[in-house]
Amino acid sequence: MSDLITAEVRESVERSVLCWLATSDESGQPNVSPKEVFAVADSQNIVVANIASPQSAKNIRVNQKICLSFVDVFVQKGLKIIGTAAEIKPSVPEYFRWVEPLHAIAGDRYPIHSVFVVRAIAVEPIVAPSYRFYPSETTEKSQVQSALRTYGVRQDKGA
Ligand SMILES: Cc1cc2nc3c(=O)[nH]c(=O)nc-3n(C[C@H](O)[C@H](O)[C@H](O)COP(=O)(O)O)c2cc1C
């Protein structure tokens, strides 16, 4: 299988503060919830910490098909990872390999019950409509300025 998590995808994932994990249950009922403890594990997999995600875990046990999306809310670009997820629990030897980058993020503050290992099948860009509808006046810089105003955030002088 080709390596879908390229350096560019990794950079986009690492720039995102949150990701959104979409799963569905046996009836097809969708569920989506935010996760902030995640990491690129290798060129095909992203790991997400199950700290407080019982419904996601339940759904992944019955349906491995998932979608994970990341958006840099300031630049207003991101990506969608379409793939499958497996829940890896501490009882299996390979758990330590998968959980390691998550411990580096979460430290001891949060207990990690298990790890969702997301294997990418496809990666698609997410782009705010302004980039397409108003290309002559939309740049990453203008989007950042606009998002800063929308969210009422003041940028550091040095940034
Ligand atoms: C900003 C934010 C970050 C979160 N990060 C995580 C996380 O990394 N892992 C996790 O298991 N839950 C995380 N949560 C909590 C879950 O999103 C929340 O418990 C949710 O209800 C779980 O839903 P689920 O059982 O449908 O997955 C986060 C919540 C918020 C608001």
Explain how this protein is built.
The structure is a single chain. By secondary structure, the protein is an alpha+beta fold. The protein is built from 5 helices and 7 strands. The protein has 2 domains: 7-127, Electron Transport, Fmn-binding Protein, Chain A (Pnp Oxidase, Chain A), CATH 2.30.110; 129-159, no CATH class. It has helices spanning 7-15, 54-62, 95-106, 129-133, 140-151; strands at 19-24, 30-35, 38-40, 45-50, 65-72, 77-88, 114-127. Strands 2-1-5-6-7-4-3 form a 7-stranded antiparallel beta sheet. It binds flavin mononucleotide (FMN). Flavin mononucleotide (FMN) binds next to strand 2, strand 4 and helix 2.
Keywords, separated by commas or semicolons:
globular, binds flavin mononucleotide, alpha+beta, 159 residues, seven-stranded antiparallel sheet, 35% strand, 2 domains, Pnp Oxidase, Chain A
Structure, briefly:
Helices cover 30% and strands 35% of the residues. The protein has 5 helices and 7 strands. It has a 7-stranded antiparallel β-sheet with strand order 2-1-5-6-7-4-3.
Number of strands: 7
Shape: globular
The small molecules bound here are: flavin mononucleotide
* Integer average pLDDT: 95
> Total helix count?
5
CATH topology title of the largest domain: Pnp Oxidase, Chain A
Number of domains: 2
Structural class by sheet pairing and helices: alpha+beta
